Amino acid sequence: MADGARSLRGGGGGGSSGSPASSPVLGGRGRNAVGGSSPPGHAFRRVTLTKPTFCHYCTDFIWGLAGYQCEVCNFMSHEKCLKNVKIPCSCIAPSLVRVPVAHCFGPPGHYKKKFCTVCRKSLESPAFRCEVCELHVHTDCILFACSDCRQCHQDGHLDHDTYHHHWREGNLSSSARCEFCKKTCGSSEVLSGMRCEWCGILAHAACYVIVTPECTFGRLRNMILPPNCVQLFSRNFSKLHCFRISENLQTESDEDDDVDGSTQGSTKDIQISTDSSKQILKIFDGNDAVKRNQFRLISVPRIAKNEEVVEAALRAYYINDDQQEYELQTFTQQVLLSDDVINRNDAAEDSNLGSVFRESVPEAWIIRAKPKDEEVIRIYPAWLKVGMAYVSLRVNKDSIVQTVIKEVLPLLGRQTECFQNFKLVEVLMGSKQVQRMVLDNQELILNRLKDIRKTSIRQMNQTRFYIVENSKSIVQVNLFVGGLPPQLSPEEYTNILKEELAIKTNVVSVSHVYQAQGAVVLQISCFSEAERIYMLVKDTVVNDKPLNAVVLPTVMASKIPQNCCPLLVFVNPKSGGLKGRDLLYSFRKLLNPHQVFELTNGGPLPGFHTFSKVPSFRVLVCGGDGTVGWVLGALEEIRHKLVCSEPSVAILPLGTGNDLGRVLRWGAGYSGEDPYSILVSVDEADDVLMDRWTILLDAEEPAEGAENGIAEPEPPKIVQMNNYCGLGIDAELSLDFHHAREEEPGKFNSRFHNKGVYVKVGLQKISHTRNLHKDIKLQVDQHEVELPSIEGLIFINIPSWGSGADLWGSESDNRFEKPRIDDGLLEVVGVTGVVHMGQVQGGFRSGIRIAQGSYFRVTLLKPIPVQVDGEPWIQAPGQIIISAAGPKVHMLKKSKQKQKKTGNLKEMKVDNISVQIALLKQYNCKEKNTKHRRDYFCKGIPVHWKTEKTNCYILEQMSATLKLKHSLRRTHFVSKHTVHQKMMLNHWGEKGPENLGSFQIPQSGRLVQVVSWLKSILMDKQVTSALN
């Protein structure tokens, strides 16, 4: 291509008065149109507003016809706000990334009232969203997004134990309030406001810079798995694999990239071509863009200088370098209708240009960096735990990597160490993947920079060089493989893996075996082997059963704080009308994604294995009663391998009936509540015990449908029961519903529809008669029980059945004890038919109380429908034995206390509040012609502290404890909007109050919880002497 290309170099001539090149602020080279210091990286230019526009700094409406817009990232601002802008431009954002972490983009979707982080425009077309953080980008902006995702684990690169706030700009609700000035910081009109993606603290762009950098993970700190406690080596795995996100939701990235370049280009072409005074150019940024056909469109005036075109091309690729260092070359593989970007006012030329605009065939150019004899590069020390410091080093055409290492070490204070103990690593900070490559010691640095720029100048802007100490890296990838035959020995599992996957035993070993579940955990010491096995498992079938593989992190239990009890979250995405997908995203964002597991991807076993060494944790199950039973069953099987053998389990009901969720006060079903408030409720929930029961099914005759009656009887089967077990009409309705769902599973995606199907199958059985009492025999605690005339027999463990109905009833009965979920007893109830069941559902009747006991034997004389916790089948004649299943399970019951809404002033959401304590000696209050002496604590005391009814009593106790002459009163806590505050300001005048210093509240809470904190402050001699 070089032979057929000609150069168009950016000259030094000035532009015309009406062109962008004539603007004194073009390119953001440290120049500002309004004087003063330039905002970070922005290229502001005065523009005429043609539609309602809001300032991105203060979010207020820009009145008038003029505003200031950054020509690179589209940041809009008032003239008065320019000097206060702290948000950096997208062109310098890659250089501000402290630890490069790639994003985990899901499939493109439509996101209402969201804004692109790169170009700051509204997401009107399909866009991408990171599944781990709150990043949203257009499809054609994804390549320019910074690799600044949350660091959720340690991977051997830039690991540290101190975590800072991870700020993300914008996409806040319009009601979001700054935690410091208490004013609105969110907006639905522009990208504004800052939010820490770990602790959730909200702040203005002007307020967040004063926040203490260390983050303590906020209100949910006790249930978040700290990132420094998680280790995952994932060099060859995508972020989707690392966080166990289903791949069926992800489209092919290469195909998307190709479509983005051409589709977006043609759309913009149509929009811009309506202006006949503009010329459209295709710009490629290097050989890689040409190969992938990824280009950017720019619009320049028909009369345009060279530097204008170069400047516009750099802006299109978010490059803030000097345009004198770049040049444009024609792309000779395209047939161009014009020979030069510089158009002349000749009639012949105009006719050719007209055809270009009419046919929408833009010219194609490649922007290249001019060769340099020397250059200044930045070297980042990889061993720094805090900060983003770097050293600048000038290199020439003779500089090699070894020379750079020798020159850098003295600048970093390591001059006494041998240069051979260090290496130079090139890091490409892509938005989808962070790639690292160790440079050879004899490689020429300038040649390496030249190759990168030739490939892509965008990649050059996203490339860093780190100096790293040589160390022997230990690679350990944990791969969970499920779907294997159960009850085999470790040697047999190893032989199967050798045959099916051709594993290399010198780098692969079986570390854990779960025989009952038919699963193993492989420990792999080679990245390429781990990736090969992972990809091969997807297409492997053993005994007609497909295998599945999950990449698991390692939790370092020794690093978990003592007061931390991480929450292990299981979500069934198929439950709750597909609301599980949204919950997966919300919980990954609020917690560490490594503690959130999707049950359709390997079941609950990978999650329990990951938390097997955690000394204390809780479990949240998001799904229906069947999902809860699935998780509890897996917990029972793996309990002996867990350090925390009895974790408490909470429920977020997503199913149809949700009877267990109702009993434990988690509600009748999830209806879109705030996930944050759900996690707070889990943290405040009470620990209760619940019985679990084992049901032994022993068929004495062949199952129905056996050929000629010569088939063997079904082997004994054991199932676990949590809620209830039904025989007869109850199980028959469940079986019909189950068959209907199997025929058309796509229709069963809402709770309302599911209940409608139940009603339909019930009406079809309304005339059905079954003398169940003649077909079964019941024995309770070794005593025969005579059954009344019934059509259904139900064993209930919880006081809720069939979507909340009280089948046992509330009437007192001297024959039976009052049912409880932990009394070690089951209640036996009978129903006479569908009509009776409907009356129970409506609350008009209760079931027929038959017995109460702890051991049951049911003899089936003929095949009868049976259902356990909603799972139905036809049971052959034989014995059914129900008995207690080992230890009781620990469940979490939602607290009776009314939960506080998110954002309520009565609940502080910040970890540390800096409170400025000032003392007002004495002033005259003319109110009611009386004088009052008051001592005030001003600015920073939360508003709700001065409105609680308990304040008077608490303040009196504090005054007595501190032996103050003047009792503290509620009026001592003054907000900045009260009349008293204004009077105090008038009294202070220019001197202001006597400042007694700033203090940090150690933890959030109500006033009662910070009395000890205030006491420690007021015990200071300076304060007490002033008060007394």
From TrEMBL:
Coiled coil: none annotated. It catalyses: 1-O-hexadecyl-2-acetyl-sn-glycerol + ATP = 1-O-hexadecyl-2-acetyl-sn-glycero-3-phosphate + ADP + H(+); 1-O-alkyl-2-acyl-sn-glycerol + ATP = 1-O-alkyl-2-acyl-sn-glycero-3-phosphate + ADP + H(+); 1-octadecanoyl-2-(5Z,8Z,11Z,14Z-eicosatetraenoyl)-sn-glycerol + ATP = 1-octadecanoyl-2-(5Z,8Z,11Z,14Z-eicosatetraenoyl)-sn-glycero-3-phosphate + ADP + H(+); a 1,2-diacyl-sn-glycerol + ATP = a 1,2-diacyl-sn-glycero-3-phosphate + ADP + H(+). Keywords: ATP-binding, Cell membrane, Cytoplasm, Cytoskeleton, Kinase, Lipid metabolism, Membrane, Metal-binding, Nucleotide-binding, Nucleus, Phosphoprotein, Repeat, Synapse, Transferase, Zinc, Zinc-finger. One of its GO terms (biological process) is phospholipase C-activating G protein-coupled receptor signaling pathway. CDD domains: C1_DGKtheta_typeV_rpt1, C1_DGKtheta_typeV_rpt2, C1_DGKtheta_typeV_rpt3, RA1_DAGK-theta, RA2_DAGK-theta. PANTHER family: DIACYLGLYCEROL KINASE, DIACYLGLYCEROL KINASE THETA. Residues 41-89, 102-149, 164-215 form the Phorbol-ester/DAG-type domain. One of its GO terms (cellular component) is synapse. The lineage of its organism: Eukaryota, Metazoa, Chordata, Craniata, Vertebrata. It holds the Pfam family DAGK_cat. It is found in: Cell membrane; Cytoplasm, Cytoskeleton; Cytoplasm, Cytosol; Nucleus matrix. This is Diacylglycerol kinase. It comes from Lamprotornis superbus. Belongs to the eukaryotic diacylglycerol kinase family. Residues 373-472 form the Ras-associating domain. Interacts with RHOA (constitutively activated, GTP-bound); the interaction inhibits DGKQ. Interacts with PRKCE. Interacts with PRKCH. Interacts with PLCB1. Interacts with NR5A1; the interaction requires both LXXLL motifs in DGKQ and is required for full phosphatidic acid-mediated activation of NR5A1. One of its GO terms (molecular function) is ATP-dependent diacylglycerol kinase activity. InterPro entries: ATP-NAD_kinase_N, C1-like_sf, DAG/PE-bd, DGK, DGKtheta_RBD, Diacylglycerol_kin_accessory, Diacylglycerol_kinase_cat_dom, NAD/diacylglycerol_kinase_sf. Its main location: membrane. Pathway: Glycerolipid metabolism; Lipid metabolism; glycerolipid metabolism. Diacylglycerol kinase that converts diacylglycerol/DAG into phosphatidic acid/phosphatidate/PA and regulates the respective levels of these two bioactive lipids. Thereby, acts as a central switch between the signaling pathways activated by these second messengers with different cellular targets and opposite effects in numerous biological processes. Within the adrenocorticotropic hormone signaling pathway, produces phosphatidic acid which in turn activates NR5A1 and subsequent steroidogenic gene transcription.
